[in-house]
Specification:
The chain is mainly alpha-helical and 101 residues long. The protein has one domain. It is elongated and about 50 Å long.
């Protein structure tokens, strides 16, 4: 198996894990009544980052449409303004896969 094939498999697994993490945290946000707005905001930011990283790992953006819609709905439910929701949905994937620290 070539190195490129191994890398593709690794990226696909990473993207799958990111989307599973997205789903778990989105469900958590939907089912738990957060009294701390900052905690909910942190989860929303984590959801946005998971979508960005999934794109970096080879997921086609069209495959993320339903999750992006859910992210917007959750943000509006938390009282986010339209410009804040747009910021969450403005994904800036890094093509070389390196996350800023």
């Amino acid at each position: 198996m070539s190195e490129a094939a191994v890398l593709n498999i690794k990226n696909a697994l990473k993207a799958k894990q990111l989307l599973e993490r997205f789903d778990v945290n989105a469900l958590r946000l939907q089912t738990k009544n957060f009294t701390d707005h900052q905690e909910a905001t942190d989860i929303l930011n984590m959801l946005s980052e998971a979508l960005e990283e999934a794109i970096e790992n080879g997921t086609h953006p069209a495959e993320l449409q339903s999750r992006a819609n859910l992210l917007a709905q959750l943000a509006f439910a938390e009282g986010f303004e339209q410009h804040e929701v747009e910021e969450l949905l403005t994904l800036r994937p890094n093509p070389n896969g390196k996350r800023p620290t």
